[in-house]
Design goal:
The complex is a heterotrimer. Chain A is mainly α. Chain A has helices spanning 16-47, 56-89, 98-120, 138-167, 177-207, 216-227, 229-250, 257-270, 287-294, 296-322, 331-334, 341-364, 378-407, 414-440, 463-496, 534-542, 547-572, and strands spanning 4-6, 13-15, 576-577. Chain A has three domains: 14-250, Up-down Bundle (Cytochrome C Oxidase, Chain A); 257-336 and 543-571; 373-448 and 460-510, no CATH class. The chains are: A mainly alpha, B alpha+beta, C mainly alpha. The complex binds protoporphyrin IX containing FE (HEM) and copper (II) ion (2 copies).
């Protein structure tokens, strides 16, 4: 018999086993973020030329660990928690095969420890991309494989939960939009992880001597089907989190279920093709393949993101206007709850992802423009805007939302929680913008010494590049401060936060079930469809329901167009290439 | 409250879409198509494109080519390592090799002359990053990249390695001089 | 509550085929894996596999 409890504050139903798995995955994820953030400080202080903290070998080791721990472990562990939330909690369904889910979690943790141990063992400083024929310790690959298998199990448990919910008729009509977004994320994850298996298993066998040769160009093609698609999991999932938070904080409904879901459908069709943008300057591959794939087949997945960029804030605007905040174009935004870290975190994630991460990503993924950007520090600048400001901040906002609901603890240090998204968002934006700027001056990524000290050939980047890397360093320190604040507030709340339920003890914060009295074996009432609203019937004629959002969207588009052509202009000035 | 509840209509696909979304989708789609067609357009009319010419090659064969070129066109040597500097004939083939942790040999080119630049690595991945122009190419072992390059400004250029290639990565430099 | 009487009568037109696709996660899974496998991976692997041997 599946046991459920209902959160008295939100009305959400938690299946006991699902709840514990969510907690365990989320907590393990935050631990990884803590490690990754600590390493980030060391990395960014080394890349700040005036500080230049670590020696070279330690720097490359720490950078390898930072990338893996942040991008793979933190993001994916948390993603699994989101899947279980979207599948079980939002659908009021029991989780399919909790034992398998548990096994998946254990595999992920064991894999993560194994890989990190290999990196800190010192002979696996190969960066997360681990391009062959550079070789890491076999346990480096094996750990990643175990982690991936665990994550794959999580995805199938999620898909199984959809089946359970449907068969047991736990909801009416179609699944909620947020759950649909999570499904898209899970689907992309399946492709991603399959690609990972395709490349990491042979590489593991090669590292222990069973296979003599892995083709370095093949490796890059298949590795990026893993490496970039995993970022697309994040996009699909954090857009779902945006919709969720818009719904929770504002009671917002999607402007159009059809538009939002069709946009997600475009993701399924096209988003993963973009892995190709990592191979724009690789030898021997045809431009046809490059253009078709890097453009997600005519940029149809970019179209989808631009649609979400309108419909997420648009949904908020419509909800706010309904509450009477109708003055001018932006009263709805000015009077939004900027002191609530759930909202402010989500909104910074949305704006940062769109303006910094999105625009730069599409521009640099253009076949020819990649020539002036590939492997410069512009690239880390770009993806810290997507995966840190976009994904990580969305996860953080969701965590602030879930601490009382899932862990039944009140948040500590509310004044600091209020500030956290601003500190982290500001710091990370500085890192992103100034790394991108330094990249346009040619500064290399993954590089210990931009000064080339003692090198007889000698080379100096322009003085501005040093300044930019220094400012990025300051931004990094601010961001790490914001990240530390997040960890202190969340972990502190789990341990010291006021209990909202008497059983919510320390152990319950880390995945142990609440006392049985909290649960009942009564099946939750079926999740009804959302109440129909008159608006929907006539909004075909109503015209522009969210004018403020439309203005914002046009600002985004204009910035996009200008920035895009500026880059073509830069490109046209370099040496002729054909 | 509907983003996390089932849609209000069973048949949500048939609910009419607001004009605002339709207008935005149309604008965005046009922009997406413009961006798409910029790439083939630049192949036809632009001056900076990635060549598709590439070959499989072994280190031994490639090194022989490099040495042959050095033998014919070496003009001088530089530094304690006596790294050769090669001035290839106008329009000729130039063989540049990446290895741990050096770009070999150094080159002397002429402004506004087009060369066929060959590029490969004989060990790990490296990154050809020409500064200060900021041209960046991936150098993959076992594969020879062939590009036509036309320097458009005289001066001293440095090749930085911008693909991580082990502990000496940050020491890996090369030189190209472009003469009027 | 768990009876089968859930056919809400808000609208009972035929469900559009697009909606049927979107409501079917396993069909979507198939599409989502097949598309990149064909266009990115298989085509990409063919590209690399057909790179000729250097002519010298
Ligand atoms: C907390 C603040 C953070 C700071 C200050 C920071 C800073 C940096 C810096 C300076 C680099 C090195 C760039 C280079 O030399 O190539 C880097 C690399 C990277 N960071 Fe972060 N980072 C932070 C958080 C994160 C997070 C949360 C993620 C992922 C979710 C992340 C993902 C990565 C990845 C994937 C790399 C590339 C590693 C590689 O090149 O293999 N970072 N970061
Ligand atoms: Cu190198
Ligand atoms: Cu290198």
């Amino acid at each position: 018999m599946a046991l459920f409890r209902q959160c008295p504050d939100t009305g959400l139903f938690f299946h006991k086993e699902a709840e514990n798995l969510m907690k365990a995955n989320a907590v393990a994820g935050v631990v990884c973020l803590l490690i990754a953030g600590t390493l980030a400080l060391l990395v960014v202080l080394t890349r700040w030329p005036a500080v230049h903290l670590l020696p070279a070998d330690t720097f490359y080791m720490v950078l390898t660990a930072h990338g893996i721990c942040a991008l793979i472990f933190w993001v994916i562990l948390f993603e699994i928690a989101i899947l279980y939330f979207a599948g079980s909690t939002l659908l009021r369904s029991r989780l399919a095969t909790p034992r398998w889910a548990c096994a998946g979690f254990v595999l992920m943790v064991v894999g993560a420890i194994m890989t990190l141990a290999a990196v800190f063992g010192g002979n696996s400083s190969v960066m997360m991309t681990s391009y062959v024929p550079m070789r890491a310790d076999p346990s480096f690959y094996l750990g990643l494989i175990l982690f991936a298998v665990g994550a794959l199990i999580g995805c199938f448990v999620y898909l199984g939960t959809l089946v359970v919910a449907k068969n047991e008729k736990t909801y009416e009509g179609s699944v909620p939009l947020v759950t649909f977004g999570a499904t898209v994320a899970a689907i992309i994850a399946v492709f991603t992880i399959a690609s990972g298996a395709e490349i990491l298993i042979p590489t593991y066998l090669w590292s222990i001597g069973y296979i003599s040769h892995i083709d370095p160009a093949m490796y890059r093609v298949i590795w990026w089907a893993l490496g970039h698609s995993s970022q697309q999991i994040n996009v699909a999932a954090h857009v779902a989190v945006w919709y969720l938070i818009a719904g929770v904080v504002f009671g917002a409904r999607p402007m159009s279920e059809k538009v939002s879901r069709a946009a997600y459908l475009l993701y399924i069709f096209f988003l993963q093709l973009a892995s190709a943008h990592h191979l724009m300057t690789d030898p021997g591959i045809s431009s046809e393949w490059k253009i078709f794939n890097t453009s997600y087949a005519m940029y149809l997945a970019v179209l989808a993101s631009m649609i979400h960029g309108l419909t997420v804030p648009g949904a908020i605007e419509v909800a706010q206007r309904k509450k009477g905040l109708t003055n001018g174009a932006f009263e709805w935004l000015r009077k939004a709850p900027w002191g609530n870290p759930v909202f402010s975190g989500m909104f910074i994630s949305l704006v940062g992802f769109g303006f910094l991460g999105g625009i730069s990503g599409v521009v640099m993924g253009t076949e020819q423009i990649s020539i002036i950007i590939h492997n410069t520090i512009y690239v880390p600048g770009h993806f810290h805007a997507t995966v840190v400001i976009g994904t990580t901040m969305a996860w953080m906002a969701l965590t602030f939302l879930l601490i009382p609901v899932l862990f039944r603890r009140k948040m500590i240090l509310p004044q600091f929680a209020k500030l956290q998204p601003y500190i982290f968002g500001l710091g990370m934006s500085m890192v992103a913008v100034f790394h991108m700027a330094a990249g346009t001056l040619g500064v290399a990524r993954r590089h210990w010494d931009m000064g080339f000290a003692g090198n007889p050939l000698g080379f100096e980047y322009p003085a501005t590049a040093y300044l930019l890397m220094g400012i990025a360093g300051i931004g990094g320190v601010i961001a790490v401060t914001g990240g530390a604040l997040f960890v202190i507030i969340t972990v502190g709340s789990l341990i010291f936060g006021e209990k909202l339920q008497p059983e919510a003890g320390l152990l319950q914060s880390f995945g142990v079930p609440l006392a049985d009295s909290a649960y009942s074996d009564e099946k939750p009432a079926r999740l009804p469809m959302a109440p129909a609203e008159a608006v929907e019937a006539d909004h075909g004629e109503a015209g522009f329901e969210a004018p403020g959002t439309f203005i914002l969207a046009m600002v985004l588009l204009v910035s996009f167009v200008i920035y895009y052509f500026i880059n073509w202009k830069y490109l046209s000035e370099v040496w002729g290439l054909a | 409250m509907t983003s996390f509840m089932p849609p209000a209509q069973k048949n949500w696909w048939n609910v009419p879409v607001g004009r605002q979304e339709i207008v935005w989708i149309a604008i965005a789609l046009v922009w997406c198509l413009i961006m798409f067609f910029m790439m083939p357009y630049w192949h036809m009319y632009g001056g900076q494109n990635i060549s598709n010419e590439g070959y499989r090659v072994t280190p031994v064969k490639y090194q022989a080519k490099v040495n042959e070129m050095i033998g014919k066109y070496k003009v001088r040597e530089v530094g304690a390592m006596k790294t050769p500097v090669v001035a290839p004939p106008d329009g000729g083939d130039v063989y540049l090799m990446a290895r741990l942790w050096q770009w070999y040999p150094m080159l002397e080119l002429k402004k506004d002359v087009t060369y066929r630049l060959h590029l490969t690595s004989i060990d790990w991945n490296h990154g050809f990053s020409l500064q200060p122009v900021n041209i960046n190419l991936q150098v993959v072992p076992g594969y020879e990249f062939v590009l036509s390059v036309t320097p458009n400004k005289a001066g001293e250029y440095t090749i930085v390695c911008n693909e991580y290639c082990g502990i000496g990565h940050h020491t890996m430099l090369g030189k190209i001089w472009v003469k009027e | 509550m768990a009876d089968d009487n859930n056919t809400d009568e808000r609208d009972d037109e035929k469900i559009s085929p697009w909606q049927q696709i979107i409501d079917n996660p396993f069909l979507l899974l198939f599409i989502g894996v097949a598309m990149p496998t064909v266009f990115y991976t298989l085509w990409g692997v063919m590209e690399v596999a057909t790179i000729p041997i250097a002519p010298y």
